[in-house]
Design goal:
Two copies of one chain form a homodimer. In chain A, 34% of the residues are buried. Chain A has a three-stranded antiparallel β-sheet. The first copy, chain A, is elongated. The first copy, chain A, has helices spanning 3-13, 16-28, 35-42, 46-58, 77-91; strands at 33-34, 62-67, 70-75. Chain A is α+β, with helices and mostly antiparallel strands and 114 residues long. Chain A contains five helices and three strands, in the order ααβααββα. The longest helix of chain A is centred in the last third of the chain and has 15 residues, at 77-91. At the A-B interface, α1, α2 and α5 of A face α1, α2 and α5 of B. Chain A binds a DNA duplex (30 and 30 nucleotides) through α3 and α4.
DNA sequence: TCCATATTTCCATAATTATCGAATCATCGA
DNA sequence: TCGATGATTCGATAATTATGGAAATATGGA
């Protein structure tokens, strides 16, 4: 992940409605949520939310699929993973930025799932 | 870390000159770098860089100390760590976002250094 | 085909953020 | 105290980003 891609991802998350939407989609998991559901949950008008979803999408953080009349959005963890890797690599060098989780003796294989 | 603090940190990093500056400071380590040195390395005029350093500072990502005529900036890893923790917690839920490092069998105690 | 629903695109406007020269402030050495 | 150096603040302007209603697009059902 290069720095301009990183900046796009960071900027995508650096906004109230977008961060809320992304968190929601992470919670929702594979099933995802429709644009309308997200807009309602976040409390933003449809057209505004659409704008924000486009930003997240453009950053590669979420995916879109049509399901009948609804557009279902879901989190795309690969970009998020790349972002985490970039930050760990470039912004935490040798210091204690990596949170102390995910380091259990035998974590079978939940990582690398997406 | 609450979401508005998170957003401030994300926004602080979501800018070319600031991300470059922060990476530089992470590399520089404890010793840090002067405002002038950062501005030159990043290729931004002093007053612009000063603006950006203020943003990073306000987000809690860097610290400032005066050393004679120079202001020396250095990375503050605690906020970065909090940010990583927030993202891991809220944006990677159960999925494979945590990079596969920091999980060596016996990593003595380099974490929690700062 | 026609209507209702779900969502986006368009557009104008508002708000925020970035840029950078000039002026100002702080510190040091002579 | 004066001049030089390092850095910030000020202020005006440019650029980007956010907002949200209205119009347009896509889909499905009757």
């Amino acid at each position: 992940m290069d720095s301009s891609t990183t900046i796009r991802a960071l900027a995508a998350l650096a906004q109230e409605h977008r961060l809320a939407a992304f968190r929601l989609l992470v919670q929702a998991g594979e099933a995802g949520l429709s644009a309308g559901a997200i807009a309602e949950a976040v409390g933003a008008p449809a057209s505004s939310m659409s704008f924000h979803l486009a930003q997240l999408s453009h950053a590669g953080l979420i995916r879109q699929k049509r399901q009948s009349r609804s557009l279902i959005y879901s989190a795309d963890y690969t970009t998020m993973g790349d972002l985490m890797a970039y930050l760990t690599e470039n912004c935490c060098s040798g210091q204690g930025c990596v949170p102390a989780l995910g380091c259990e003796p035998q974590n079978t294989d939940e990582r690398n799932a997406a």
